[in-house]
Amino acid sequence: MSIRVSNLTKIYDTQKAVDGISFEINKGEIAGFLGPNGAGKSTTMKMITGYLPPTSGTAAVCGFDVKNSPMDVRKRVGYLPEANPLYYEMYVREYLEFSAGIHKITTDVKKRIEEMIEMTGLGKESHKKIAALSKGYKQRVGLAQAMLHNPEVLILDEPTSGLDPNQIVEIRDLIKSTGADKTVLLSTHIMQEVQAMCSRVIIINNGRIVADDSIQHLQQINTRQDVLVITLEQEVTRSLFDMLKNAQRYENIEANKWKLATDAPDSLRREVMQWALDNNLSISSMQAQTETLEDVFRALTNK
To answer: Which residue ranges make up each domain of the chain?
Structure first.
């Protein structure tokens, strides 16, 4: 296993940021690490890379324990943190030469730097100081330093943050091609990124894993459940929806508009009509929709 996490926990004072999570990721896998803000994604990534000590549990990269062999882990990991710390007063090539020195790259250093500049699309900006770059190009510099030493494992926290649509496609293709012979764990809030790049999804909420499955299976779940969107003319309380036996879950999406998830849309539609009649409610619209991957994510993280 390229990444192995076992009962990993991180506690800050009384807050349990990561709560006993376990997973394994093999070589050649691109795994999406999803969750709402504050779910524990960045904390987990920092523990895997050795930048943050766990309170308990273990993490290993390519067979090396993060706690006992931190330098062996860092040699094998390319890490792009969410904040993407850079030395703004350095020029792009200067910074990559500096990073090569940290990783003790001694063979064909300039050639490797030029390869990374080309791979990440930094060519026309490579003569500038990092401070003069746009956010998107700063992100590219961060990606270049993460991949410079040709690591076996890539840990990428929001790798497409700040990129325009064209840049996102380019970096997405780069990550996909790189992930063919590496292990990639990436965090993102963009569901399209997950569908385009990932073979597997790990969803974390409140420090705990709530789903760990292939993207194909999550898409199958997606097609098995339907959504009924109803708009009422009156305000209603959430408890009133508890009466609907065919609604697996429900949420208020705006004003008097509600989204009801169901495995039996026809039965739910009939039940809603009777429910409205029994409770003196007027329905101004009712529409059936197919549930999206984003809906599945929201369902798992809103529990």
So the answer is: 3-215, 225-301
